[in-house]
């Protein structure tokens, strides 16, 4: 009961009474004993007032200190986007010096980023950059969808795509298409202009810096550059776009005409719709002639075994296989597919003339998606 009575008292008085009773047991105070003088009583009241003032100042100074610390944590978090746990640890280690803590946090983050580089990164974004006659798409991976939606991650992906436009094809690949790995970009210089990540650095260092900020493994996985002749356009479509130039699935193709482009806007509209078709229909090959012999023979074996199980004659089986093979081409070959906006037309039939556009040729088509 005594405890509950004391609980109703102000904190300072409660602590003072505890201190006083402790001193009395050791013979240090006589203010409550019988025969205390008036002077002693006055001195006791003065000491009690002074003690309560000291307790009040102590608690107020601690509260102010905590408020300043929270403010520093918030400021450093806004500057770096690092996890709060790491932000606080850096400030404590640097005696709450925010500038020193920021440098320490970057060093610590880079070390942690290197340690996390072996972890699986299956989320991420495709970023697209285009200029006249050329388009570049890169894939930047991270560990979680949460980081993939972060503005710094998105900014880095777009910056890498713009840099990829200047990658030159030094290998004998398909004309007009250059697929490359991260090693082609890692040592290139990048000028960043973002409130939280700015200045000139290499692409590899920029990726490591963002990985340190996000606390996840981030890696540049691959890239593709597609170009066309002076008589063509490169069109692209991004699916599931969080913002312009970013997405999870991309369709990209090159359209060419025999003569000078007289209706560039109309041709670009055709290209945009066909790029959208690539994402929707998921073609594996551009033309029937592009289907490899291994794929064709394997598919023919599967179809023949299915036809044999029907018990029909050999001639009927051959006709069944040929019919099903045509159906297979309509499913996986771009030029044989039904146009997704009008299934009465095939892409092959569509290209003979569309909205007063001259006859065009689809020279290249690609579908890309994140891991």
Automatic annotation (TrEMBL):
Keywords: Elongation factor, Mitochondrion, Protein biosynthesis, Transit peptide. Pfam families: EF_TS. GO terms for biological process: mitochondrial translational elongation. SUPFAM superfamilies: Elongation factor Ts (EF-Ts), dimerisation domain, UBA-like. Residues 135-350 form the Translation elongation factor EFTs/EF1B dimerisation domain. It comes from the Eukaryota. One of its GO terms (molecular function) is translation elongation factor activity. It is found in: Mitochondrion. GO terms for cellular component: mitochondrion. Gene3D superfamilies: 1.10.286.20, DNA helicase RuvA subunit, C-terminal domain, Elongation factor Ts, dimerisation domain. InterPro entries: EF-Ts_dimer_sf, Transl_elong_EFTs/EF1B, Transl_elong_EFTs/EF1B_dimer, Transl_elong_Ts_CS, UBA-like_sf. Associates with the EF-Tu.GDP complex and induces the exchange of GDP to GTP. It remains bound to the aminoacyl-tRNA.EF-Tu.GTP complex up to the GTP hydrolysis stage on the ribosome. Belongs to the EF-Ts family. This is Elongation factor Ts, mitochondrial. It comes from Gossypium tomentosum.
């Amino acid at each position: 009961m005594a405890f509950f009575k004391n609980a109703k008292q102000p904190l300072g008085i409660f602590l003072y009474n505890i201190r006083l009773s402790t001193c009395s047991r050791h013979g240090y105070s006589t203010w409550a004993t019988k025969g205390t003088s008036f002077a002693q009583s006055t001195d006791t009241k003065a000491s009690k007032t002074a003690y309560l003032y000291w307790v009040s100042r102590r608690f107020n100074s601690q509260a102010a200190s905590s408020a300043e610390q929270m403010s520093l944590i918030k400021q450093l978090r806004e500057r770096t986007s690092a996890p709060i746990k790491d932000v606080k640890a850096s400030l404590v280690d640097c005696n709450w010096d925010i500038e020193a803590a920021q440098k320490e946090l970057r060093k610590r983050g880079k070390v942690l980023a290197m340690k996390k580089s072996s972890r699986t990164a299956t989320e991420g974004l495709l970023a697209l950059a285009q200029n006249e006659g050329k388009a570049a798409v890169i894939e930047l991976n991270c560990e979680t969808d949460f980081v993939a939606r972060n503005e710094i991650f998105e900014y880095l992906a777009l910056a890498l795509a713009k840099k990829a436009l200047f990658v030159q094809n030094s290998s004998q690949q398909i004309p007009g298409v250059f697929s490359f790995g991260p090693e082609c970009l890692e040592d290139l210089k990048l000028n960043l202009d973002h409130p939280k990540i700015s200045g000139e650095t290499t692409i590899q260092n920029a990726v490591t810096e963002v990985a340190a900020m996000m606390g996840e493994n981030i890696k540049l996985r691959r890239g593709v550059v597609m170009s066309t002749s002076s008589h063509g356009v490169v069109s692209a479509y991004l699916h599931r776009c969080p913002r312009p130039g970013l997405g999870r699935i991309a369709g990209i193709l090159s359209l060419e005409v025999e003569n000078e482009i007289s209706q560039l806007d109309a041709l670009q509209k055709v290209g945009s719709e066909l790029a959208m078709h690539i994402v929707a229909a998921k073609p594996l090959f551009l033309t029937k002639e592009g289907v490899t012999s291994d794929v064709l023979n394997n598919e023919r074996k599967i179809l023949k075994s299915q036809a044999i199980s029907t018990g029909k004659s050999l001639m009927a089986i051959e006709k069944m296989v040929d019919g099903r093979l045509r159906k297979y081409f309509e499913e996986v070959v771009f030029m044989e597919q039904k146009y997704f906006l009008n299934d009465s037309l095939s892409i092959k039939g569509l290209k003979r003339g569309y909205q007063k556009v001259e006859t065009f040729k689809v020279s290249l088509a690609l579908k890309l998606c994140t891991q």
